[in-house]
Amino acid sequence: MELFIDRDALSRGLARIQGIIERRTTQPVLSHVLLHAREGSLRLTATDTEVGYVGEIAANVQKNGELAVDAASLFQIVRSLPEATVRLTRLDGNRLDVKSGRAKFTLHGLAAEEYPTLPPFEASATATMESKDLSRLVEQVAFSIATEDVRWGINGAHVEEVTVDGARRIRMVATDRHRLACAEAPFEGSTRFTPRMLVPRKALAVLGKLLDGGAETIDVDFGESALQLRRPTETFWFRLLDGEFPDYRAVIPSDNKHRAIVRRADLASTLRRVVILIPDRARPVRFAFGADELTVDVHNVDRGDVSESLPIELDGNPVTVGFNARYLLEILGVMRGDRVVLELAHPLAPCLVRDPDVNDAQFVVMPMRLD
Amino acid sequence: MELFIDRDALSRGLARIQGIIERRTTQPVLSHVLLHAREGSLRLTATDTEVGYVGEIAANVQKNGELAVDAASLFQIVRSLPEATVRLTRLDGNRLDVKSGRAKFTLHGLAAEEYPTLPPFEASATATMESKDLSRLVEQVAFSIATEDVRWGINGAHVEEVTVDGARRIRMVATDRHRLACAEAPFEGSTRFTPRMLVPRKALAVLGKLLDGGAETIDVDFGESALQLRRPTETFWFRLLDGEFPDYRAVIPSDNKHRAIVRRADLASTLRRVVILIPDRARPVRFAFGADELTVDVHNVDRGDVSESLPIELDGNPVTVGFNARYLLEILGVMRGDRVVLELAHPLAPCLVRDPDVNDAQFVVMPMRLD
Which pTM value belongs to this model? Predict the structure, then answer.
């Protein structure tokens, strides 16, 4: 293997896989990236066996070949190199020579044969989405996935096809029992969802980063217990978790007698101040929805009291509810519009949070009992 | 106490004391800042009893008064406030009311009488320095202070008055036995140094931040086992450690047969690459000084080899030495000029590092034995 490649393109490619490779693993090969040079391109392959990535970078390949090297070291080295062009050469004994200007590294690698092969993937359906739509689904839903819940069925994001306002949509839903996030986006083509397919947290974290920039559309292939996302020069594959997501529709409240519209930025800045006095442990913040004013306050915490009022449009009678303000803050942070509507049936009922102007996401927060 | 004050000015003032107050202490009052309002200004006082700060901020004071409140909470609150003006009011029960626009906080505080009084300071001499010069001394020396050395005498920076090239200078020196840093700057006025006065690490850390921006000159008052630094609206005071600094002059090598001049940015970028392959534990990097080229390399580390050459001007015979590259990198990082000269007598002698063009700082690095 011998090739010349643009330092910044290689650096960007290596940056994309840093979230996939496992640094502390009992299998050292999983901290490696597989380099594969052939006909004008260098292919990077990274996997932890649950998720896998393959990306192609244009290169001036003098001699084909492959080799696996430590991905973190190679990334650190490449981005520190002094010249815009890098020469990669495979030496005897699975060593990789990295040369750029006056800098010369020799890395100890592993033979390509030792690298795990990604399982074969057969697509039974393919949907095409806008990258920015998929990016929004991930951002609006992933934060609500349960971290260490004993109930397997909520340890990932549920995905399904739904019809909203007469149009086909891909929907993603996640919950940790304290809050729920649900978002939809349009697609073209076909899907093959089953009731027991959950997207794991790590796949969503990697996906969120991969979707930054790049091509405008992305193909989603449906395989056997796995999904694959494809763009012209890269493929990202991940195993689905097998688990039955709870009946989330039962949790989304519909008959809400109290409905308050508030400016999103105002409520977020108020809540950012309110949580300053609240220690890490959850403690309810009092939300008093009045005729034209919402008063948010916390009393008798160790360090003091805080109270703030902001204008709202209230539909229904005044009502006072307790919430974990940090949950609401996270939701406000992933919403897009200027306004947000909070809807609830009574003070101990789940609260629906959504954009009153755009119907592509809804959030539910469970109330907390006020002392 | 009741006053109106500019939010950003108060926020900047509170930012300056965050490095002084102790967050985890058995004396809760030390996590507080003392507020003292009187005649057009709010005075902030912060201390951990070893260092102390007093700063004045212009304020529209309606009613004099004082109160101590948690410094971290007040800082977080003030910088989050929605309006440019903040009203501070002392309420019954040592509570502080903080109001700005629609936000209203009430913090539980402590009576001013509970706040430790700073010890009286009597100046027996006062030197005046440029702020940027003092800032440079701190930056060029503080990083070399021993962290946990059993020898008390090197747990702080030594300061003294010296004459360099016929001019009076304040000199600061620190060492951890592996490297030594020594820098000088001009002053006016008088000093009163004793052989047993060491500036503690924390005082230098705080000072480094306080010197960012602000007035162009600063007065240094010499007191009994303490120093005080004064600018028009702020005073920073700290106790000196009692300890005898070793005879550092004996460590600075003078009769150096090998002398190499190299571009500082080139050597720093080379060393930043070289350390990528070196684990945290110290391991010598080989520096081979040739007639017109320095070759830096590391071989047989776990992850591979690295080698790099850069042009030098060598005076004397070629010589090969081992160094801890991270120590050299830190030194290069605090130097200012384009060029740096490395001087040594033989491969196992201490190496002198300095600017060949400006004589205001010198550094010494102990060599490491190459395997």
Answer: 0.91
